[in-house]
Amino acid sequence: MSQKSGSALRFAVVGAGMAGILAAIRLKERGEAVAVFEKADRIGGTWRENRYPGLTCDVPAHAYTYSFEPYPEWQSYYATGAEIQTYFEHVVDKYGIRPLIRFGAEVVALDWDETTAEWTLTLGGGESQVFDVVIAASGVLHHPRLPDIAGLDSFAGPAFHTARWDETAPIDAAKVGLIGCGSTGIQIVTALADRVDKLVHFQRSPQWIMPVPQFAYSDEERAAFRANPALMDAIRFSDEYIGNVRRFTDAITDIDGPQMQMIEDICLQNLENSVRDPVLREKLRPTYRAACKRLIYSWCYYDAVQKPTVAVETGRIAHIEPKGVRMADGTFHAVDTLVLATGFQADRFIRPAGVTGQGGLTLDAFWARRPTAHYAVTLPGFPNFFMLNGPTGPVGNFSLIDIAERQWTYIDQLIDLLRRGEGRAVAPSAAAHADYEERRIAAAKTTIFGSGCTSWYLDAEGVPASWPWSYDAFDEAMRQPKLDEYVLT
Ligand code: NA7
């Protein structure tokens, strides 16, 4: 296991989701010795974990693909979760990654040895292996957050988080309670409205809905994509997608500017024009600014929510009882099944694995105040440890595959220093990182995410945890690491 390769470096990749697959492909291409550790029994990360009805990626399918592996087979402009899982399975086989992955292998500890400049990786069963470089690709949203609602355990029927979908739970012609209206809850409404007898959607904070087009690709179009991959690039780099990404990041960083005004106007018009009943319209009207929470892209939510099977409940939940949900005003909603679309603990990243860097510094200690990483990829005190989609990276309505690919460009240049033998360990200096964080936090507070709503984008102190500058600034930062910010030992 993990024999020294041509470059003499041994790589461990933690996680076989989108980012881990990318790292494995890139390292394999270079002939590196790479081992991927995946705690589950399948690849796919978030697309493996989430199987709820209505699951759709809110990034156009042809943009949510690796740049080096366009996919003519997408069925429609926005792809379902099941299709995306199929795409990743295809990529893993095509690039010969599967034999590199060890399934059922949960990494529980990573310990840096200063004298040998090696990471010792320990698995749940106690086995350990030694590596030179660790790529942490363990995802962002993979620890479900259950609501702290009294009586939840007393519910007599099935009650489950959306990332733990219970296929056996009564849904068809049943009474279903759905708590939470982030992207997940909204998508579930669109999928269940025609199946249930009654769906009560508990919305603590209604959402702004951005109308987007959805359409199927015909067999002829797929044949054309196969014959001419440039047609797929044309979609990926179209103004409809990449232009929107630019306008969106301009909007979130210039919250009183014209782009944000346009987003607010479109969302507001969508509400006014789509929801006929004035009482329901007011229930669905958010009290915070558009895009403060992750903006929800939907072509069918307002249709679904107006169906007679759907009821929107915006009152305060008092507690759960064995047969349903009791509101603070005494109203009772009897339900057979309770779906918890209450989001994820977005501050966990590679934890609960215990990561210990230089001088016994633990990741928990380093992140005591907030999770952070230098330009979202490296950490002072944790040499040769690289994160894909780590803390402070861009979050928003764009492709995390694209983000990860750009991050890899940056990471690979740092690894090159090790490949060339310029040092055995590389990490950002504490001073450079402190300067980055200070600038980042100051800017983050002025983004739309910090404009006065709650969301998974905020850290424990209410500071947006994201990249606070433009998409182009991120692209620029990822082209080349500033080596004077790094310490080589
Ligand atoms: P989100 O976006 O974090 O949404 C969670 C929802 O659950 C949100 O509406 C919350 O209301 C609601 N919530 C959480 N706790 C409670 C309690 N205790 N009572 C009532 N309502 C509650 O998670 P999603 O899974 O929808 O989406 C996560 C990301 O996945 C998404 O942004 C995409 O990037 C993919 P709140 O707004 O806090 O009032």
Structural key phrases:
alpha/beta; six-stranded mixed β-sheet; 14 helices; 22 strands; globular; binds ligand NA7
Overview of the molecule:
The structure is a single chain. This protein has helices at residues 18-29, 46-49, 81-94, 183-192, 219-227, 230-236, 239-253, 258-274, 278-283, 301-305, 363-366, 400-419, 430-444, 471-479; strands spanning 10-14, 33-37, 101-102, 107-113, 118-123, 128-131, 133-136, 159-161, 175-179, 198-202, 209-211, 296-298, 310-313, 317-321, 324-327, 332-334, 337-340, 354-356, 378-379, 382-387, 426-428, 486-488. By secondary structure, the protein is an alpha/beta fold. The model has no long low-confidence stretch (mean pLDDT 96). Bound molecules: ligand NA7. Ligand NA7 binds next to helix 4.
Largest sheet: 6 strands, mixed
Which of globular, elongated, flat, extended, rod-shaped describes the shape?
globular
With strands numbered from the N-terminus, the spatial order across the biggest sheet is 3-2-1-7-20-19
> Distance between the terminal alpha carbons, to the nearest Å?
26 Å
Radius of gyration: 23 Å
Low-confidence regions:
none
Bound ligands: ligand NA7
Average pLDDT works out at: 96
Give the amount of beta strand, in percent: 15-25%
**Percent of residues in helical segments?**
25-40%
SS class: alpha/beta
Number of helices: 14
> What is the number of E strands?
22
Compose a concise summary of this entry.
With 489 residues, the protein is α/β, with parallel strands linked by helices. It has helices at 18-29, 46-49, 81-94, 183-192, 219-227, 230-236, 239-253, 258-274, 278-283, 301-305, 363-366, 400-419, 430-444, 471-479; strands spanning 10-14, 33-37, 101-102, 107-113, 118-123, 128-131, 133-136, 159-161, 175-179, 198-202, 209-211, 296-298, 310-313, 317-321, 324-327, 332-334, 337-340, 354-356, 378-379, 382-387, 426-428, 486-488. It is built from 14 helices and 22 strands.
